[in-house]
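Final report, Chapter 2: Outcomes

The project's central promise was a pipeline that accepts a single protein chain and returns its three-dimensional structure in a standardized token representation, suitable for archiving and comparison. That pipeline is now operational. To close this chapter, we reproduce one record exactly as it appears in the project archive, with the input sequence first and the structure output second.
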Amino acid sequence: MSQTTYTVAIVGMGKRGTHHATAFHNNPRFQVVGVCDIDVSRLEKAAAGLENPVTSTDADDLLSRVKPDVLCFCTLPSQRLEFIKLGVAHGVKLIAYEKPMALSTNEALEIMQCVREAGVKTVVSHQHRYGEHYQKVKEIIASGALGRVHTVYGTATGWMMHMMTHLIDYIRWFNEEAEAEWVMGPMYTPLLIILRVSSSSPTACGGWWRQGPELPTCPRLTIGGASVV
């Protein structure tokens, strides 16, 4: 039984966009039909490594010409909503893009409303779930080896909107995607953000984001009193 092949257009051919384009190109379920970047030399270099799909320095023009099933864009965070609306307007079936999903709650809600009304699926890059170390943590928690897990802490260094989204994703994933009951985020350095979620198993699940030079250089997860690095 043959499987459907989906056409893909990628916007933003920097390091991350090139990674996505290469992954799509190497997957037989996808065909890269177009790439876009405002840097012509970078665009031409990327296209040469993808069997020369259609190119354009304008995303609207590219989507009009190739009419892809999937839009993948890797651009500045300030352009999320703009490209979501563009993909919806051109009738794509799925939009894949980088974290953070949005730079404000209102923007995130507008994105959600836009794609849901259009019936368009979206996926945000939280690829760390596929890392062996994170999957091992998930496996240990699910096995019950730690007993009843009350709290999950996560710390990391780096840009808040770059790493915090991963930490929240881990916390919810480890806690069976429990919905948040409340979020607290005092805005100062070091930065602390607490996410409390409800679950039928743990009594609480919290995530801490702290930003400061005194912190370690790698993510750390503390689960039921046991630190996992």
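Archive annotation: Helices lie at 15-25, 40-48, 59-66, 80-89, 105-118, 132-143, 160-174.
This record, like all others produced under the grant, will remain available to the consortium after the project formally closes.
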